[in-house]
Design brief:
Helix content: 55-70%
Strand content: under 5%
Order of helices and strands: HHHHHHHHHHHHH
Number of domains: 1
Distance between the termini: 62 Å
Structural class: mainly alpha
Shape: globular
Number of helices: 13
Largest sheet: none
Number of strands: 0
Radius of gyration: 31 Å
């Protein structure tokens, strides 16, 4: 009688599962390969998802509050006012702003003259000998920047213009850009240099001595936020105006603002030239979240066969 052959081990699903469930260190004697990058990516994705969920909840709560209290919509002006305070007081927190502002003003004035800005001196001299026109130009500079911009912002909210959020964020962004520029490169206006007349000080000495002496306007010439805001007003107004003739007419406001800031010696030609670039960058920043969301939602094309 032959020796019985031992039965071959039977592979059961449970046994197979147990084998594959063993730790990686016991498989073929190879050490486990850790993947910290994948873990970090997963953690970052989870954190981003939680952040978006919280932001969505906050946005929903805000919309609900606005629905219950319609006047709360106008609180959206508060961030603009906060940034304005920052641009107005930036020179208080920067050591040496006055000295650097005068030094940089000489350089900016020379560049502006090289660019053909010498005509601004002629305009400034003309206003100096025509006090009535000079006074009107000074009050235009003092009042209209804040007043017209504020009126347009309120009307955008009141009329519930769909693009209000874009214009609001662009206005905030352009002021933040200005704040950074004023901090890094303070520039005194031409009225503080020899050869120019301070038209605003003649027309409104109280404004010049009390307000301007404490504001960043003393060292915040470049870029010209007066011109930036005026262009913003024209763009935002065009979102509410349908008639082509009226749309063209609103651009007279930034044109008049450019003439005014040069003639009153509050800005250089270089300040005016850089203003549209500041606003363009501000709108690009304001548009970037929407463009990023659109890119994430865009379906990925499946690879073709072969």
């Amino acid at each position: 009688m032959g020796t019985p052959t031992p039965a071959a081990p039977v592979s059961t699903p449970q046994a197979h599962h147990s084998a594959t469930a063993l730790p990686p260190e016991t498989r073929a004697g190879r050490p486990a390969v850790r993947r910290p990058i994948g873990s970090l990516r997963s953690a970052a994705a989870a954190w981003y998802a939680a952040l978006r969920s919280a932001a969505a909840a906050d946005h929903a709560a805000l919309r609900s509050a606005v629905a219950r209290h319609p006047w709360a919509r106008y609180l959206q002006i508060a961030p603009v006012a906060l940034v304005l305070w920052g641009t107005d007081d930036v020179d208080r927190f920067r050591t040496g702003a006055a000295l650097a502002g005068i030094r940089n003003a000489v350089a900016v004035n020379a560049i502006s003259r090289e660019l053909g800005g010498g005509f601004a001196v002629t305009m400034n001299n003309w206003l100096a000998v025509h006090p009535l026109v000079g006074s009107s130009a000074a009050w235009y500079y003092i009042v209209l920047q804040g007043a017209i911009t504020g009126i347009i912002g309120v009307v955008l909210i009141w009329r519930r213009v769909p693009s209000f959020g874009l214009h609001r964020n662009a206005l905030i962004a352009c002021n933040v850009i200005g704040l950074v520029a004023f901090w890094l490169y303070p520039v005194a206006p031409p009225r503080m240099l020899a050869g120019y007349h301070d038209i605003a000080a003649r027309a409104a000495p109280v404004f010049s001595s009390i307000l301007e002496g404490k504001a960043a306007d003393d060292f915040a010439a470049t870029p010209s936020l007066h011109v930036v805001w005026a262009i913003w007003v024209a763009i935002a107004a065009c979102a509410m105006i349908r008639r082509p003739a009226l749309r063209a007419a609103v651009w007279l406001y930034p044109a008049a603002t450019i003439v005014d800031v040069l003639a009153t010696a509050n800005h250089y030609l270089l300040d005016v030239i850089t203003a549209p670039g500041v606003l363009l960058l501000a709108y690009a920043i304001a548009l970037s979240p929407a463009l990023a969301r659109r890119a994430r939602q865009r379906p990925v094309a499946a690879p073709g066969p072969g």
